[in-house]
Each structure stands twice: as structure tokens, then as C-alpha cells.
């Protein structure tokens, strides 16, 4: 694995036990400049993972608990009138962080959910005819509980398509859960030391973008997407955005393997996390 990426991975593993594949996928999404939907039951380490990612990379982080009464302004910010200047000034919301954790995103209204769309797609916020750029890297990690349906608002297809991948942590196996129970008092992502910084992440993202992709690999990706569109058993197949995301993640996977070119196995490993939430 790439040296800096390995340092980040090993650092996160100090607080996330036995989930090496999950950590790799989150790192791939980060290097692909993508957003992650984490669907899992409570208590398996979703928040810990997000904190550990931010702490390891020395990036700003904010978590917002999504509730039915949450307003868009609670996320993106609000204009406040200043009596002294007799003018309005914009107070930035928690979305203005490098890593934004939208906890239980399906518990808030579609209106509030949609306030994330522009930020996730364009990396900026528009309010009162003004645009505010979100500093890169910018990553949204959203969580939802698959077992709770009452009082929830399922994410619409358009919003699901904005997430580069959907993953699940799952329960730890017996040995790792034993380790967690013995050391739970020391498992605090806030105690992790940064092993990378913003410039490191931006540099790795640039290298991922410059990874070589043969035309045959592109055709392979298109063929996969077309299979989902042509199937009679699938109502909604992979979008062109999904194809792009599959390409981006395959490039990131190649980078982690210290290659500057993509092979078919890179694509194969990314198919399920990238496409599973987009196909209906």
C-alpha cells in the first residue's frame, strides 16, 4: 500500500478493530473525492470511524444529528442582521468542515436532506444570491439505520446517486470484540495523533486523478453499467455518474496498490460498494 495511506490506515485501526476492508473503502472514497453512505445498526463504530478519519488526516470535523425538526439553515448557515453595520453577515453552518457527519440522515425531512445536494455535488453553498466555496477536501459521511422505518424519510434516488459508495461496518468477530471490551477505555479517536495533513490528502487525490486508465478498462466499466440498465429485473440501473464513480474508485484502488494504472480487478472490487445503493 502507498506509504502515507498505510500510515493513515494503521492509525485508524487503533480504534476500529477488525474492519480493514471498511477502512480501505473509506480511504478510497476520500482519495476519490467522494461521499459515503454508511448503513448499519447503532453502536458498531460509525461515528468513531468518521472521527478517526478526520483526526488521522488533521482535518476539521463536525457531526450533526439529523432530526425531524432540523432545518436547512442548521446545516448550511444563516444570514444574521448586524445592528451596528446595519447589514447582514453570513454565519457559516457545520457543513463548512472538511469532514461532515450527517448522523441518521433518513430521520430528517426531504427539504433538509436536499440542502446537502449542492454541497455534495458542487462543493459550494448558495444562499441569498451568494456562493460560498467549501474548502477541499470535503467529504460527507451519512449514516442510516436499516432496521428503523417509523419516522424516517428514505433518501430519494437523486440523493442516493450523490453518494460515491454505500458501506456497512457490521458486527466485529468474537476475537476483535474481546479486544474491544478489554480496551474500550482507551478506544478514543480524539486521542489519535495526526499522521497526515490537508496537503498530503490533496496531493494523493491529484495522483489518483492522474492514474492511467486504458480504453479497454473504460469499455469494461460501461459494459457493467449497461448490464444493469438492460436487465428486466432492474427498474433503475446505474447512471453515468455511477460509471464515473466506478472509474474514480478503481483509480484510487490502483493508487493504494502502488500502481499508476488500473487493472480489471480494481474495477471488480469497487462494483458492489459503488453500485449497490443505486440499482433498484
Give a verbal description of the structure.
This protein has 280 residues and is an alpha/beta fold. The chain has twelve helices and nine strands. A five-stranded parallel β-sheet has the order 2-5-8-1-9. A two-stranded antiparallel ribbon has the order 3-4. The longest helix is centred in the last third of the chain and has 17 residues, at 240-256. It is globular. The mean pLDDT is 93.
Shape: globular
The SSE order reads HHEHEHEEEHHEEEHEHHHHH
Strand order, main sheet: write it out. Answer: 2-5-8-1-9
Q: How many β-strands, per DSSP?
A: 9
Instruction: Determine the strand fraction and express it as a percent band.
Output: 15-25%
User: How large is the count of helical segments?
Assistant: 12
> What is the CATH superfamily label of the largest domain?
P-loop containing nucleotide triphosphate hydrolases
CATH architectural group of the largest domain: 3-Layer(aba) Sandwich
Q: What is the CATH first-level class name of the largest domain? A: Alpha Beta
Task: Specify the structural class.
Answer: alpha/beta
Poorly predicted ranges: none
Helix content: 40-55%
- Please, what is the average pLDDT? 93
Termini Cα gap: 34 Å
Biggest beta-sheet profile? 5 strands, parallel
